[in-house]
Specification:
9 helices; single chain; rod-shaped; alpha+beta; 252 residues
């Protein structure tokens, strides 16, 4: 098998550049990844064909290749493509420079997404409002922030389903979660009265809460979870009930 066939079929993008940095050869894979036909690349200098290289760390690495016989590696983000590339280059015996690269956008986006999730989690954990996130139709807790844990004796229920985490709660509350997940319609309730084991000691506590259940959607627009916010209103609700209570008849 000759070199031409190998270059044509390798899964990496390939460029062959002469000592004046003029592109002599580009394989089909490179044209596809770079979204440029070979006629717009071959015959031009590397810097003319790809002006976005100017001033990048990738340019600095590539310019060292003619001075060494060792493989040089680089990474670059192409904003016009919104893609990340990982590359490696080496000087051949004939003085030509061989540049290979592959698209690593999925890897980089996954890293960025994970970093964003970690950052968002830190923000939510310190929010002054009780926030919890459940995933799936079984409402499995993915996040319970510090304010929310304060309402359950500091316990961390992450990983448990809502029904398993709080089995003492009336089924009607879980029915609300089921409906939000099924319909994708948000629900806000004021002074929702809930009896639950607040401290995890088997003693039921009855409190009132202003709650919102907001569906979360995936990229395909399907509901994947619910974000729940809660503010305890027990003292205010009790005061309102006292204010609105009918006057007690006086006896002489």
């Amino acid at each position: 098998m000759n070199a031409e066939i190998i270059v044509r079929h390798i899964i990496a993008g390939f460029l062959c550049v002469n000592h004046e940095w003029v592109v002599q050869r580009v394989n089909a894979r490179a044209s596809t990844m770079l979204r440029k036909p070979s006629r717009d690349i071959e015959g031009k200098t590397l810097w003319e064909a790809f002006p976005g290289l100017a001033g990048t760390s990738a340019e600095r690495v590539l310019r060292t290749v003619p001075l060494t016989r060792t493989e040089q590696r680089f990474e670059i983000f192409a904003p016009e493509l919104y893609n990340w590339f990982e590359g490696w280059s080496v000087r051949g015996d004939d003085g030509e420079i061989y540049v290979f690269f592959r698209d690593v956008s999925d890897r980089e986006r996954a890293i960025q997404t994970e970093a964003l999730r970690a950052s968002l989690r830190r923000v939510l954990m310190d929010a002054p409002v009780a926030i919890s996130i459940t995933r799936g139709p079984e409402h499995r807790y993915e996040l319970i922030n510090n304010a929310s844990r304060g309402l359950i004796g500091g316990r961390n229920l992450e990983g448990l389903t809502a029904r398993n985490a709080l089995p003492e709660v009336d089924e009607s509350l879980f029915a609300i979660l089921d409906n939000v997940y099924r319909t994708g319609e948000a629900v806000t309730l004021q002074d929702l009265e809930v009896s639950y084991d607040r401290e995890g000691d088997g003693v039921l506590y009855t409190g009132s809460f202003d709650v919102t259940y907001q569906p979360m959607r995936d990229t395909d627009d399907k509901v994947s979870g619910i974000i729940q916010t809660a503010v305890e209103t027990t003292a205010f609700a009790s005061a309102r009930r006292m204010t609105n209570a009918p006057d007690t008849p006086k006896h002489s």
